[in-house]
Amino acid sequence: MILIDVDLWNKAKKEFELFEALVDTGSSYCVIEKSIADALGLEKDGILHLWQMGEPLNVPLTKLRCRYGEKEYKVEWLIVEIKNSYKRPILPEEECTRPESPHPLTNRVIIGNTFTDRLSEEEYTKLFER
Amino acid sequence: MEPREWVNKHVKELRNKFIGKTIIVCNNKVIKTFDGPVNPLKINEVARKICKEKWCYTYFPESEEEYLL
């Protein structure tokens, strides 16, 4: 699992905020949780139409200024809503079939190809050097 | 050492010690812990007050592979 730090622009406060980001090479898009996107003052800038599990899935898109290292990028992000009960660990008495841990988007963002494709070859290679 | 680099280097010890907690790291040490996951904007608010140098945060869940695979 590759975790990096990215700064995302808080439109509401006019400053960058630091986020822990999970690099997911299997994700076409970067992903941010809706309540965090709302707090950053992000506006919907289109809809991505997907076909998943035999059903249509329409996901809001936004464009977001992000900083990684010394460089700044403006890339497309998906906004995904996560149920509040998924944002905390499972309770001992709780009966449910979801994973025990909180959803990773509770406290992180996901970095997908919309971001990694913008990196130089050197920066991209450095991401996976550990 | 960059805070993220320090976390990556010590991730096993940190995970054992701070399982279920969110930590803020600055100057090669853990300077603040929270129970459970915390909204990143809240973490930023706290970190700006207590960190003079570059910092980072991370959360150590019991398990998260179920979501990721």
What is shown here, in short?
The complex is a heterodimer of chains A (130) and B (69). Chain A is mostly beta strands and 130 residues long.
Give your account of this protein's structure.
The complex is a heterodimer of chains A (130) and B (69). Chain A is mainly β and 130 residues long. Chain A has a single domain, classed as Cathepsin D, subunit A, domain 1 (Beta Barrel). Chain A is built from 3 helices and 7 strands, in the order βββαββββαα. In chain A, strands 1, 2, 3, 4, 5, 6 and 7 form a 7-stranded mixed β-sheet that branches. The longest helix of chain A has 7 residues, at 121-127. Chain A is globular and about 50 Å long. Chain B has 69 residues and is an alpha+beta fold. Helix content of chain B is 42%, strand content 26%. Chain B has helices at 3-9, 11-17, 40-50, 65-68; strands at residues 21-26, 29-35, 55-59. The longest helix of chain B is centred in the middle third of the chain and has 11 residues, at 40-50. Chain B starts with a helix and ends with a helix. Chains A and B meet through strand 1, strand 2 and helix 1 of A and helix 1, helix 3, strand 3 and helix 4 of B.
Q: What is the average of the pLDDT values of chain A? A: 90
Low-confidence stretches of chain B at least 5 residues in length (pLDDT < 50)? none
What characterizes the major β-sheet of chain B? 3 strands, antiparallel
Query: Which structural category fits the helices and strands of chain A?
Result: mainly beta
Number of structurally distinct domains of chain A: 1
Supply database-style keywords:
heterodimer; A: 130 residues; mainly beta; Cathepsin D, subunit A, domain 1; 7-stranded mixed beta sheet; 3 helices; 7 strands; B: 69 residues; alpha+beta; 3-stranded antiparallel beta sheet; 4 helices; 3 strands; 42% helix; 26% strand; globular
